Structure formats: structure tokens, C-alpha cells
Amino acid sequence: MSRLGTLGARLYRGEVGYDFVAKRMIWYGVSILITITAIVGLAVQGLNLGIEFKGGAVFTTPKTSVSVSQAQTYAEEASGHDAIVQELGNGGLRIQVSELDQTQANKVNETLSDNLQIPVDKINAEIVGPSWGEQIANKAWTGLAIFMLLVVIYLAIAFEWRMAIAALIALIHDLTITIGVYALVGFEVTPGTVIGLLTILGYSLYDTVVVFDGLKEGSKDITKQTRYTYSEIANRSLNGTLVRSINTTVVALLPVAGLLFIGGGVLGAGMLNDISLSLFVGLAAGAYSSIFIATPLVADLKEREPQMKALKKRVLAKRAAAAAKGESAEDAGDERGEPQDDAPGDAAAAGAVVGPRNRGRGRPSGRRR
Amino acid sequence: MAAPNRGRRPTGAQGKPGRALVLILIAMVALTGGMFFAGQLTPRLGIDLAGGTTITLEAKNTVANKNAINETNMNTAVGIIERRVNGLGVSEAEVQTQGEKNIIVNIPKGTNSQQAREQVGTTAQLYFRPVLTVAAGTPTAPQPTPSASASGTAKDGKATETATPPSGTPTATATTQGRAVTEALKAPTPTPSGSGAPKSTPTPTPSGDAAAADKLQKDFLALDCRNDKVRGALGDKAKPSDTTLACGKNSAGEWEKYVLGPAEVSGKDVDDAKGQLDQQRGMWIVTMDFTNSGSKKFQAITSKLSQQQPPMNQFAIVLDGEVVSAPSVNQTLSASAEISGSFTQESAQDLGNILSYGALPLSFEAQSTQTVSAALGGEQLQAGLIAGAIGLALVIIYLVAYYRGLALVAILSLIVSAILTYTIMSLLGPGIGFALNLPAVCGAIVAIGITADSFIVYFERIRDEIREGRTLRPAVERAWPRARRTILVSDFVSFLAAAVLFLVTVGKVQGFAFTLGLTTVLDVVVVFFFTKPIMTLLARMKFFADGHPWSGLDPKRLGAKPPLRRSRRASAPTDHPKEA
Fold it and tell me: What region holds the SSD domain (chain B) (predicted)?
């Protein structure tokens, strides 16, 4: 771990780092591609909606010796509809029959109980009307809209509106990707999925907030210096909080992974599995977007400010002068590319391993906060 | 509001770590004590973990009434459904509204879920039917046999009036058939089945169909009102236009059976009804106002009935196939009527409610019905707990691997969080009726991550400070304000998500949102009152302060620049203006 610790230190000091911000076009491209894929998948394949969205019944039996195909025959005979039967980890069966109403479902339940020789009260039945899933989904959309509105207002107060916008875009991006994965892989969408999806909201933003907090601090007195442009500062902050982001993501994912393993492995299917699956996908997307999408977006938005434009001019001018004086590239932060107007911050400070820098070019003496 | 904190206000947790720790210790002891005091050592389990049936109903506006969905109507509906479910002999059913137009019915295990499913959510039907015959539904048992599943144990006797001999009131007088019953009971009823002998020979049914009448007569003889299955079937079969059988309870809470004529007036014809105190006579009565068409019908039925001999002068108020009251009529009535008898305030208001809303003010559609056997519930709970244990273990392993000694702080904090969460959940059971369901367990597990995230934010800050070349004690203090801000902002966002979820959703999702919100709040409490003070104390310990390799705070490992003092880094001036 010591190397990790040192790496953390070097990241923190900006001695090493990865230029996330300058390469943002790549990330945007990747994300747009994924988003398009997700939308296409959604349009072409659509979502595999669970029984709750179509109406029907799910019967779960305790351990039984009846085979899957046998149970399917029973269920189809009893209901006159197609039945999907899965074997569960505990030897029980999960029998899904779509488009049943309450009365029919009760009949099927009794018939199954006779055929499988399991008392009725040992069979779990979940009977849902066709509009139940829709109701949950509608409420979810309402909640989503309200939440987004509130969170944008809050982040705009806590940070600034640009960050709020970037966070919102990252959030929508996460949700789109998660829904897209569901469409492409064909996971079943149940109310549990919807719950998981809504939980992603809080989580995905958690990461983003941690990163933005570092960014806000990093760019506090940005106009009082002429060494870095905003994008470069953003990138340094990002690298400085990288360990934090990775750790918080891993730690958030671990319990979800535990849930997923148990939900999928032991119970076969059900609520636990549905919630944890969508959470897992969404969290992974959230971690990616907080680093690769949210921060570069903020940098993009900030660079449009006249103040920042002026700063960039000053920084570049200073670097040009320094270069002319033949000073080492160290101050200029290892300019690998020529300053281009359309790509602020391509003069990356990070990415270079810089030699010992103790020439006493100190920080401005800080104000007491 | 977790407004980002500028300025360093000294917090209670700062500089006086002992005080904060004592506070949280007292809180834990108090909560645990409260748990024992309340005798509630485990959280109340929801239906999906304990077994039972959950039915979610959604109200639909009726065609007649476009905006019938309002709080009053919903509460009335809850009352009616509750009466219905409890009429099945279920004693602990919970019926509650949720959101604007949902009613959730939770029926614990051990009752006939199938029947409950059929009973709940069907629109209640209220009819006024003339009484043709009355008999005792059971042999008189002054004390219901404990074994009988539904013999008078159901709390359904509220809406029956006390029998009073007609007191000569000029209005309809409620009498339960005191005389009829006693006569019927004189007849020896040795049959243990308890089918009472009919007091009078069945009146020819209006249909005049002899065979049908014969069958009705047989059924009536065989009818055992104590069997709730039989009763449920009665209500299902009854067509308003047919002569039918019905059961009802008299004031003594004993079952009686009736042969009833076709419905003359339905619940729709009642405009308004309420139980009120008659000031002059100093007794509770129920007044009814009919709609225009209703009053015509009512006039017709009362003029007919008032001519008859008891028990034929009674009309039965039938709710869902069950007779809730059978007042006798002694004069023709029209637009409004009054039922008097020995009502209590409660029974009068109850009957008034039934009359006003008997035909539920709303129609309901069962959105989802879930029946879980106790075995499966137990399995799910177990799976959830195992998943939680695995998740917790993974998080702890990761933290130990990465943060070494610091992980001790994290683990202690997680334990404190767990104790607080558990005790609060247990106490919320009796407190606000909180029940732990599977999604709520999920929420608690997922929250482990959120809680641990806060520690990571703080630890990383401390390490950053050490990298700056500070010694541990100032590092701990200086890292706190900034970490605190990050934690507050991100926890506030999480809490916002949970709160919005809780407010807009229904059913299971709510349980999930609730635990998420609760744990987020507790996270803030624990970080402020436990993690930070403990960190301050640990910073005074040699093991940590000297940066032992296993403390997770070894400056060398963290890549701090020796010498260990405030070295001046020549990096971005703006990177970390670390000035206290």
C-alpha cells in the first residue's frame, strides 16, 4: 500500500496525474456513443418489462420435486396463458403467468396447489393489476423531476450554477446508461429496478459533489495567479481527489455487490436482486461520469466566462514570455501542445513528472478561513 | 439546510472530544434503554419478511362523482375496508391510506389470504331490503366458544342497536328482534352445527317460483351464520333484485339469519346520514336524508312495511351482504327518517357512516396483492441479513487494507451507526408504525456505503494535511472543516433524494426511502459526534501521532516531504490554500 500512498501524494501534489479535462472530447464522444447505443437499444429492443407492468401473477413455491417443465404445463393448463417457470436456489419454483386478474389468479393458485401438492398457504402469490407498474413508474418520474429541480437549485446555492448544470447532465447521463444497459442486456424491469434507479440519484451525485468540492476549493483565488488556466486547475483538483472518488465508489459498490451476489445467487430472483442490479450499473456509471463528464463540463462552462478568458490569455502570454526567455518548461507545466484557442487547457500541467520544485515559489500566504 | 459552511465556527465537537462522545454514548444508552422499556427488542417486520398478505388498492373516481378522491372519502373507505377485513376474523389487519389515492391493507399470516383478497377492494354494496323471516343464526352461547373462529370474536358488533321494545316514537324505531329471537331460542336446538330453527315459515318469495322458494327454505334451515366462509359466500351471491339470505348480529353480538326480500332502496339513494344527539330525548339517533328518487322509493317501502306484523315490519340495512341493522317501521316515511334505539355515540355515528358511505364513496382496484408464507419471509430476511454481513465485511476489509489503523475509527463509527439505526428502527415500530420490509433492509445495506464514504472523505483530508508536512494533531483539526463541508453537502443531496422518494412513492419504495433518509441523517450525527472526536483523541495517542507504519498515517508512506514541518510546496498556489 505504500506505493499507493505515495501515488496518492503525488497525485495530490500534481506531480503525476492524468489529463482528464484536456481529453474531454474523447470522453464526451464515448458518452455520446454509449448514450446513442442506449437510446437505440431502447427503441429497437425496448425494455423487458416485468409482470408488474403487464399485470399477472407470480407464484413462488417452496422446495418441490416437480420439474420446471411439468410446472409450466400445470400453470398453462390452469390459466390458459403462457407461463414462465424458473427454478430457485432453494429448490423452489418461481412461476410467472401474465395477464391474469385477481379471480383467475386465485383459481390458478388453487389448481397449482392441487397439482404440486403444496398447501395453498405455502405458495406465495403476487398478483398485480396491469397498471400497478405504471403507477410506480409514474410516481418515479414525478419524483425524478422534483428531485432534479431541487438538486439543481441546491447545488447552484452550494457551488454555482455551472456546476449544478454539469451535475445534472452527468446525472441524466447515468440514468440513460443504466436504462440502456437494461434494454440491451434484457434484464427484467420491475418496481425493484425503479427503486434502484431512483437511488442512483443520490449516489451518483455523491461522487460528483466530492469532486466539485475539491474543484471549488482549488479554484478559489484563480484570478490572482497567472500560472494555470481554469481547465488546468480543474484537472489538478480532479487528480487530487481521485483517490477519494475511487475509494468512495468502491466502498459504495461493495455492499451492493454483496446484495447482488446474495440476491442473485441464493434467492434466484426478486426484490433484492432487482434493486442491487440497477444500483450496481448506475453506481458504476456515476463514478465514471463524475470524473470524465461532470468536471470537464464545468471546465467548459467556466472557460466561457470573460474572466476566465482573460486569465487564459494572461497565462498563455506569460508562458510564451517564459519560453522566449528560455526558462525551463517546468513553470509552464510541460507544454506538450501548442496553445490553441479552441482547446483551453491543453497545455496540461498534469501528466508530467516534474523534478524537485523547491525554489520557494510559494503559495500566496493564505487567508484565514 | 446543509449550507456549505464558510468560516470556522467552533463546533461543540471541536476541542472537547470527550463531551461529544459522552453525548452520543448517552443517546445510545437511552435508545437501548427505551427499546427494553418498550419491550420492543426487534424492529417490527413487514409482511414480506414475517409472512402475510399485502394488498395495495388504488381509488378510482366513480362516474357519478368526478372528484370523489379526497381525504374524507379515503378515510371512510379505510374504515369500511377495515371492518370488512376484520369481519373475516382477522384481528391485526392494518388498513392505512398512502399517498393521495392508495390504500394499503396488511394482513398478517395465519388468516385466509385468499378470502381476504376476494373481500378487500370490492365495492361495498348497501341496500335496504324488507325482512321476511328472522331466526337465530347460532344456538345462544352466552360466551362464544374460543375455538369458533368467528363466532362473535370479530369486532363487528358496533353498528347494531340495542334492542328496545318499540318506545312509541313517531318514527322508525330500531328494534332488533328481541321477541323473535327469544321465541326461536325456545326451540330446542340440539344440533351442534348451530343452525337455528326458523321462527316462521318462509314467506312465499315475490318471484313466486315454488322450487326456488323451496331451495331458499332449505338453505335458510342449513345456514350457519357463524361460519365466515358461508357468510362471505352469501354476500357474493346476493343479487339486489332477488330474495336472499343474510346474516347479521344483534345487539348482544349474536348472529341472526334473515330471509330478505328484493332491495327496494340502495345506498345511492341516501343523500346523507349521521349519528347525532337528540337534545330533547337525550339519546343518540341516526338521521337519514334521501335523494329525490330515493325518498319516493323509501316512501313506498315504508308504507308497505308499516302495515306488516313483526318481523315483517322491519327493513334490513344490508352492507356487503351482511345485515348491519334492522329497524322496524311504524309509519310511512319519505324524504328523511330517523332511527332511534339504544344507541351509544359510537354506534350511532358508525351507522350514520355506513348509511352515508356504505356503498364506498370510491371504487377501488386492487393494484397488487402479495402473499408471502412465513417460510419465504424468513428466508428473505435471512438473505438480506447475510447480504448485509457480506457487504459490511467487504467494506471493513477494504478499509483495513487501505487505511490500516484508521480503519479502527471507521469500524467503531460503523458499529455506532448500526446500534443507532437498529434501536431507532425498533422504537419506530410502536412509535410511528414503521415496519421493516425487504426494500428497507436493502436501503440499510446500501447505506453502509454512504456512511463509509463520509469517513473516507475525512481520512483523505487528514492524509492530505499530513502530506503537506503537518503533524497529526493539527492535521486532524484542519482537515475537519473542509471534510465537514463535503460530507454535509453530499449527505444533504442523498437525503434530498430519499425525502423526495418518500413523498412521491407508495408501498415498498417508501420503506426503502425511509431507511435511506434515516441512515443519512444518522451518518451526519455519527461523523460529527463520534468519528471526529474519536479522531481527535486518537491523534493524541503515540501510535497514531508518530505515524506508526500500521497507523495508516505514516508520513513517509503518505509521501509527505520531510522534514516534517510546514514545508513550502512549490506546486499550484491555488491547489490547497491550507491556512487555518
Answer: 406-537
User: Which residues of chain A from 304 to 343 reach within 8 Å of chain B, CB to CB?
Assistant: none
CATH number at residue B509: 1.20.1640.10
From the CA of A34, how many Å to the nearest CA of chain B? 26
CATH for A56-128 is 3.30.70.3400
Overall residue count recorded for chain A in this entry: 369
Mind listing the pLDDT tens digit for each residue in A102-121?
677 777 888 888 888 887 77
A243 interfacial to chain B (CB closer than 8 Å): yes
Instruction: Please state, in angstroms and rounded to a whole number, the distance separating the CA atoms of residues A55 and B322.
Output: 32
Candidates A92, A273, A324; CA nearest to B375 is A92
Q: Do A255 and B402 touch (CB under 8 A)?
A: no
> What type of residue is B250?
N
pLDDT over threshold 70, residue A141: yes
d(CA A58, CA A128): 9
Compute the distance between CA of residue B537 and CA of residue B18 in angstroms, rounded to an integer: 8
3-class secondary-structure state, position A128: strand
**Chain A, 112-131: which have a CB under 8 Å from a chain B CB?**
120-129, 131
Residues B516 and B548 in one domain: yes
Kindly state the average pLDDT of the residues B500-509: 77
Evaluate whether B167 touches B173 at the Cβ level (below 8 Å).
yes
CB–CB contact A122 B373 (8 Å): yes
**Same domain assignment for residues B109 and B246:** no
Q: Where are the domains of chain A?
A: 3-49+132-302, 56-128
Distances (CA, A) of A186 to A45, A49, A275: 8, 9, 15
Contacts of B464 in chain A (CB under 8 A): 12, 240
- Chain B residues inside the 8 Å CB shell of A110: 114
Q: Are B206 and B327 in a shared domain?
A: yes
Q: Could A367 and B7 be called an inter-chain contact, meaning their C-beta atoms sit closer than 8 Å? A: no
| Chain A (149-208) residues lying within 8 Å, Cβ to Cβ, of chain B | 150-151, 154-155, 157-159, 191-192, 194-195, 198-199, 201-203, 205-206
Q: Looking at CA atoms only, how far is residue B51 from chain A in angstroms? A: 9
- Tally of domains within chain B: 3
**Is domain A3-49+132-302 annotated with CATH 1.20.1640.10?**
yes
Q: Same structural domain for residues B331 and B395?
A: no
Amino acid at A242: L
B10 inside domain? no
Taking the Cβ of residue A279 and every Cβ of chain B, the question of whether any pair is shorter than 8 Å is answered with yes
In tens, the pLDDT along A40-85 reads 888 888 888 877 777 788 888 877 777 888 888 888 887 777 778 8
Measured in angstroms, the CA of A114 and the nearest CA of chain B are apart by 15
* Torsion angle, alpha carbons of A183, A188, A193, A194, to 10: 70
Residue range of the domain that includes B88: 52-118+368-372
CA distance A324 to chain B (A): 22
Say what the pTM is. 0.67
Looking at residue A368, the DSSP 8-state letter turns out to be P
**B114:A271 CB<8 A:** no
- Cα–Cα dist B238/B124, whole Å: 13
Please enumerate, as own/partner, the contacts of A214-217 that have beta carbons within 8 Å and a separation of 24 or more: A214/A238, A214/A240, A214/A241, A214/A244, A215/A163, A215/A295, A215/A298, A216/A159, A216/A163, A217/B482, A217/B576, A217/B577
Block residue for cell numbers 389470504: B113
- Average pLDDT over chain B reads 71
